Please model this.
Amino acid sequence: MPEAVHVIGAGLAGVEAANLLSRCGVEVHLFEMRPVRMTPAHTTDQLAELVCSNSLKGTDPLTAHGLLKRELSQLNSLVLQSALLTRVPAGKALAVDREAFAARITAEICAQARIHLVRREVTRIDLSVPTIIATGPLTSDALAGAIAEITGQKGLSFYDAIAPIVDSQSIDYDKAFFGSRWAPDDTDYLNCPLDRDEYSAFVKALLAADTVTPHAFEDARFFEGCLPIEIMAARGPESLRFGPMRPVGLCDPRTGRRPHAVVQLRRENLKGDAFNLVGFQSRLTQGEQLKVLRLIPALAQARFLRYGSIHRNTFIDAPRVLSPDLSLTSHRNIVIAGQLSGVEGYMESTAMGIMAAYSILAYLRGRPFLPPPPETAVGALMHYITDTTAGAFQPMNINFGIFPSPDVAKKLKRQTLLQREALAFSDWLGTLNYRALME
Ligand SMILES: Cc1cc2nc3c(=O)[nH]c(=O)nc-3n(C[C@H](O)[C@H](O)[C@H](O)COP(=O)(O)OP(=O)(O)OC[C@H]3O[C@@H](n4cnc5c(N)ncnc54)[C@H](O)[C@@H]3O)c2cc1C
Model:
C-alpha cells in the first residue's frame, strides 16, 4: 500500500497537491477547517475559494503571468483547467465565475477515491507523517503557533507591508543619483529627488488618491508599526519629509545641495535590475499608485513590476527555513506549499502546490527532487523564496525581475528571456521522470 500523505488546507495549493498525489496513486488525507472554523476572509465551505478578486491575471505568453500559466498548463494544473472552464469575459485577463470555479474544483477533489477530505482544524503537526502544509495567508492561529515552534521563533511572519518594485531600465537616471546618507560614494541606494513644488504636488495627489478598503479583520494596530505613505501624508504636509522621503545626509551632485525631499530606491536583487521604493508601502489602488508614483521625476516612465500593498499574511521566512525542494530544512517529510511558502498570488500559490506534491512524491520514492531551473517561471519563484543569500524576506509574485537577466543587449532581453524559458521548462519536464514518481 502506498504511504498516506497529509495535506493541510484545501485552498488553491492544497487541492493541486492532493490532486497530483492522488493521481500518482498516493492516499491523501486532505484537512480543511471550513466550515467548522472559518477564516476572516473566506465565506463558503467550498474548496479553492478565491477570497478577493476573481481575476487570475493575464494570459499573454509574452508576460511573466502568461508564462506561469503556460507552465501550469503543461503541469496539468487542476486550478488552471477549472479556471479556463469557468472563465468570464475580462479582456486579456483570466477571470472566473468564482462560485462555478470553486464548485468544479470541489467536485473534482471529492470524486477521487484516494482523497479523504477531513473537515477539521489542524492545530499540531504530526512530524512522523509526510505532510504538505498549505494553509495560506490566513492560517489559523493554533497551527501558526505550531509552525513557529518547528521553524523557530523567527520562522513565521504575520503581516505583509509590500513596497512597490520598479524595473531598473525604466528609471530616468538623469534625474536620480546614487549615494547613501552621509556616504555619497556608496551605491547601495538610488535617490530620486523632488524639489518643493514637486513634493507638494506629490503629497496633494497622494491625499486625493483612492485606496483599497481594508478587510475588517486587518486591524489598525498593524499600521502603527508600518504606516502606509498615504496615512503618513494625511498626518501633515511635512510628515513624509520626516519619514521615508527625508533628504537628511544626501547631496544631489547635480546641484551640490540637499534636495527638498527624496525617494530612496534599493536594489531588489543582486543583478540590480529591479529596485524597490523604500518605505513606500501603500493601500492605494494599483491604478492610483501608477499615477501618483510617476509624479516622482525619475520615475515618470517607471514600469512597475509589483505594486505596494499591506494586508494580513502568514508566511514563513523561506530562505531561512526551506530547502530548494520546499521541505523544511529540519524535516524533509514536511513540505510547505502555497502562499505560506512566501509566494504571493493565486497562480503563484497554485504552482507551489504542484511543486510541493512533486517534492513529497520524490521523498516517498526515496529520490531527490530537482526543481525547475530559475530561467522558468515556476523555477524563478522557487529560487526566489529559497535563495539563502537574500536579506530580509518579503513575499513575491511572478515578474520578470526575479528571472536571471540574460547577458544580451537591452532590446533583445525580453525575447531571449522568453526563448530561454521555453527551452528550460521543456528540458526540465523531460527530466522530471514522472513515471518513476508514480511507481
Ligand atoms: C484578504 C486577502 C485578499 C487577497 N486578494 C488577492 C487577490 O486579489 N489576488 C491574488 O492573486 N491573491 C490574493 N490574495 C492572496 C491569495 O489569497 C492567495 O495567494 C491564495 O489564496 C493562496 O492560496 P493557498 O492555497 O496558499 O491558501 P488559501 O487559498 O487561503 O487556502 C488555505 C486553506 O487552508 C485552510 N486552513 C487554514 N488554517 C487551517 C488549519 N489550521 N487546518 C485546516 N485548514 C486550514 C483555509 O480555510 C483555506 O481553505 C489575498 C489574500 C488575502 C488574505
Notes: The pocket of flavin-adenine dinucleotide is lined by residues 8-14, 31-34, 39, 41-42, 51-53, 121-122, 134-140, 143, 215, 311-312, 338-340, 345-346, 349 (CB under 6 Å). Residues 346-364 form the longest helix (19 residues). The two ends are 11 Å apart (CA to CA). The chain has 14 helices and 17 strands.
